[in-house]
Amino acid sequence: MSHYTPDAITGEPEVVEDALAFEGDAASANLPAAWAALKSAVTSLRGYQRADGSVDPAVSARSREVHELVDRVIDSLRALADDYRHDAEYLRASIRDFERWVNDGFGVPDFLDSLTAFHPEQQRVDGRRHVVVFPMYTQNGNPDKVFEAVAVEVIWPEFVAGLEAGDYSNALFVPIRFLDFTPGYDTNSAVLFPETVTMRAVPTFTWGAIFADREAARFRVVVREAARVTRLELPAGAQQLLDDQALAEETFVMWDLIHDRTHMRGDLPFDPFMIKQRMPYFLYTLEELRCDLTAFREAVRIERAGADSVSSPQAVETAARVQYAILFDRIFRFAITGSRVKNYDGLGGQLLFAWLHQRHVLHWTDTSLTIDWPEVAEQVIALSDAIDDLYWRSIDRPKTAHWLAAYQLVSSVVTPNPASVWAKGPDALPLDGPPRGLTDAVLPDEFPLSMFYEALEKKMTGVIDSTAGITGAGLPGR
User: Fold this and answer.
1) In whole angstroms, what is the distance from residue 244 CA to residue 152 CA?
2) Nearest Cα to Cα of residue 145 among 197, 103, 104
3) What local confidence, expressed as pLDDT, does residue 4 receive?
4) What is the CB-side half-sphere exposure of residue 42 using CA atoms within 13 A?
5) Strand 208-211 relative to strand 173-181: parallel, antiparallel, unpaired?
6) What is the DSSP letter of 336?
7) Of 54, 82, 354, 419, which residue is 20 to 30 A from 478 by alpha carbon distance?
8) Looking at residue 411, what is its pLDDT?
């Protein structure tokens, strides 16, 4: 981890220790030897692939190594069958997809058959392991559609199973942790989503997997440093998250369970996911923040119900930690992670911070951050209510009117760029043309960082960068 001096956030940062490096470790994860062979072959094979996953015909025609590498992949998949009998159908389909790729001359891969044969959502058992290999890009990772192999295990504690079987049903949700991975996951990517796989047609997706161990690990590293830099005294429940990787993983699983299902619930615009639509990025901000704040609201409800709740004691205890996780991940990590080009998650963190500050719940005084904890839940839920009301009104509004109302909500809390056309109001916008004109009028950094966040970013950049490729195995408290 990187540490900085001096203490005051307004000072210049100085890196005084090297950042930790994190990567998968097959030996410590007790993976079969066939996994190591698979990982090695896939990693070498990636070096021959172009961005679309194909191999240059001039190369494949004369290179025995490409054929030999695919043979090694296939042999490894066959060898894994004994250890992963629960994925036998998937492994057979993957072999066939690799054989077809060879027979088709190493063109753009098509792994639809193996993708549709893989069903981790039907095996949500704590500790259940899977090994998968697909041609894919990794979100927030490698944009090229090359082969990736990843060994994972499911995180499915009993209390989460109880929540999912009760009020928080989410049949597609699969929380996992890393055991080992190829280079595309030695990045910031924390998801394994079927829509990232290269395939000839788009099926109905039946699962989505999130690496809770990576989410938890980078939260622990970033928030620990942010609390030190801002001199924030953490409550005991938040400190538990920083000290215990297993607790942090379970906390993120609960958060993700509720967040994920929220995308399709509530009084929504017609397409809450906004898939295949081109629209201003602050609308994505509001959708992701809506889901997080709904998870916060539900965590408050579960915690307050306490012993009178049908939830298990572990769920009640975790619900309290979920609130800390959402708040601190949003205001400390999301707000200053990534580029300033249409960073909708970053804007969500800025919005939450500013909302709490302007309601005198969060204070930055004498270069120290303090939070009035008894007031936090009420004000976070108030922001959730404001977004929910925007959504409820959306179905009675034309699209452009909804966009303008969304901008008004965000800009009433976070100050827009002084050069913004949107900030000048409807009279300055091209309302008589197609919606694309409105989207094009949004600046890449429509809502720049505040002075507080500019200073914090300078202090935190090294720590945030150090979490690329992080897993829970690289941290104490596991």
Assistant:
1) 20
2) 197
3) 27
4) 31
5) parallel
6) G
7) 82
8) 98
φ/ψ of 168, rounded to 5, equals -125, 50
In angstroms, the CA 51 to CA 299 distance is: 42
- Go through the chain and tell me how many residues it has: 478
Q: Which two tokens stand for residue 113?
A: 């058959």
Question: Would you list the domain boundaries of the chain?
Answer: 33-206, 214-474
pLDDT in tens, 37-94: 999 999 999 999 999 999 999 887 778 999 999 999 999 999 999 999 999 999 999 9
User: What DSSP state is assigned to residue 467?
Assistant: T
Distances (CA, A) of 423 to 125, 282, 373, 429: 50, 13, 33, 10
| Residue whose C-alpha is closest to residue 91's, from 102, 79, 77, 101 | 77
Q: State which residues of the chain have pLDDT below 50.
A: 1-24, 27
Q: List the one residue out of 368, 371, 345 whose CA is nearest residue 360.
A: 371
Distance between CA atoms of residues 100 and 106, nearest Å: 9
Q: What CATH number does the domain located at 33-206 have?
A: 3.30.540
What does the DSSP assignment read for 104-122?
TTS-S---HHHHHH--GGG
pLDDT at res. 265:
87
Give the contacts of 160 (CB within 8 A, at least 6 positions apart): 175, 250, 253, 254, 257, 315
DSSP annotation string for 368-389? EEEE-HHHHHHHHHHHHHHHHH
Cα separations in angstroms, 73 against 41, 46, 131: 6, 12, 12
Residue 8 confidence (pLDDT): 41
Please name the helix (run of DSSP H) or strand (run of DSSP E) that holds residue 132, with its range, or none. Answer: strand 129-136
Question: What are 116's two structure tokens?
Answer: 């549709």
Q: Which residues pair with 131 in a beta bridge?
A: 151
What b/e string do you get for 222-251 counting C-beta neighbours within 10 Å, with b at 16 or more? bbbbbbebbebebeebbebbbebbebbbbb
CA distance to 186, 239, 273, 315, per residue, from 344 (Å): 23, 28, 14, 30
DSSP string, 149-191: EEEEEE---HHHHHHHHTTT--TTEEEEEEEEE-GGGSSS--E
Quick one: CA dihedral 53, 58, 63, 68, positive or negative?
positive
Q: Do 155 and 175 touch, CB atoms closer than 8 A?
A: yes
241 and 251 in contact (C-beta within 8 Å)? yes
Q: Percentage helix, strand, coil, to 5, in the chain?
A: 55, 10, 40
Picking from 79, 115, 65, the residue whose alpha carbon sits closest to that of residue 94 is 115
